[in-house]
Structures are given as C-alpha cells and as structure tokens.
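Students often ask what a holo structure prediction actually looks like on paper. The answer is less mysterious than it sounds. You provide the chain, you provide the ligand, and the output is a string of discrete structure tokens encoding the 3D arrangement of the protein together with 1~{H}-indol-6-ylboronic acid.
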Amino acid sequence: MRIDVISIFPDYMQPLKLSLVGKALERGQLEVHLHDLREHAHDVHRTVDDSPYGGGPGMVMKADVWGDAIDAVIAEGPHDLLAPLLVVPTPTGDVFTQARAQELSEYPWLIFCPSRYEGMDGRVVDFYRRSSDVAGVLELSLGDYVLAGGEAAVLVMVEAAVRLLPGVLGNGESVVDESFADGTEGMLAAPVYTRPPQWRGLDVPEVLLSGDHQRIAQWRRQAGLDLTRTRRPDLID
Ligand code: JB8
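The corresponding structure tokens follow.
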C-alpha cells in the first residue's frame, strides 16, 4: 500500500515511523510519502488560508493551494497503481469505524488531506468527487468531538487500516477474535489476563486456567456479550 499525506505539519506524521506501522514501512509492506502543503502556495508568504466568505471567525484553507498540491501528488505518483482514494478528515464526515478501516486497507493508494483552521474550501471535495483522477473521496470523522486539525485523525486512520494489511500483524496478534472483528458481530472482546494467576488478591477466572478450549470459548463469548450490554448497548440494538 502507498500512503501520501499532505499537511502544513508533515512532521506531525513522524509517529508513523514507530511501532507496527514503522515495521510495515521497514518490511516494504507500506510506503508513506509526506508533503508540505505550503510548497504549493502561490506567494512569498506561502499563504494557505484566507478569510471565510460570508464572514465569521477563523480562516479557511484555500482551494487553489489544495488543488495544486493534490494534483502534484497524483502526477508524481506511480502510474501502475489504480487511481488513489482521497481521504479528508472533518468533523462533518462519516464516522470512521472498523468497517471503514477495512475499506481503506483494501485500496492500494490513499491520499490523506488533513486541514487546519476552519477546514478547507468546500469546493475541493466537490471537485475531486467529480474527477476521474481519483477512485473516490471519503470525508471521515473520528467521532463527536473536534480536533485542532485533521493530522491526529490521519494517524488514527492509518494505524487502523495498516494493521489489517496481510502480513502486518504477527502470528501472535490475530485480528479475528478482537473487538469489532468480522464474525464477532461488532461486539466487545472479553477481558484478557496473563501470569501470575493471583495478583493483589485478584484471581484470573478459573475457566481460563482449565485448558478446556470449548468452555474457554464459551466463557469469552458470554463475557464479551455482558461487557457489550453494559458498556455499549448501542452495539446490540
Ligand atoms: C480543523 O475533529 B476533526 C477535524 C478537526 C478540524 C479539521 C479537520 C478534522 C480542520 N479542525 O476530525
């Protein structure tokens, strides 16, 4: 998979070099290309924003700057790949779920466009939705809260998608039994335990020490169901 990120804070993406995503980069399972939006500004001050039409607080990121940056990334990109999917984090987007993470992981090429200030000129997404240079445009929100910009959301979305790529998770860490995995019907997973069997007066549930794999699977299903009912009744409804 190839990922491009266009941002006024490309350094914000440095955490991608670490941990699981960093390992995928080292193994060549992933390529990440960072781009400074300001390199596509048109003036000596490298301006990327302007006042909102209609008035109001804050600033809006300029359509022409974003358009030139996105066009440049597409033009520089590999022509053997299919058209890229454009991903635009915004509090007004569709909620990012595990199903969306799965969907992102199935594209060979993603271009993330995190904005700042009051967001980008609305015509940017309108334009690329009609453009055959991209496979599509997804406006996505992490949830019902507001960040100072889309960069932190990009870190979240990239990690959620990349860990689903074939061969990125080790044998020890399987995606199949976890919370929200396919086949768990969007349920929370049961709590987990490791040695020692007693700690500060608390015991590991005895069934998990029994070696009876059928009873263990049954206990985990029930514990996950109980937890889902208590914490996330919305997932059952
Ligand atoms: C300015 O909460 B968010 C988000 C917040 C933002 C921008 C983009 C995304 C741009 N504030 O996902």
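Strands lie at 2-7, 31-36, 49-50, 60-61, 85-95, 109-112, 136-141, 198-199, 202-203.
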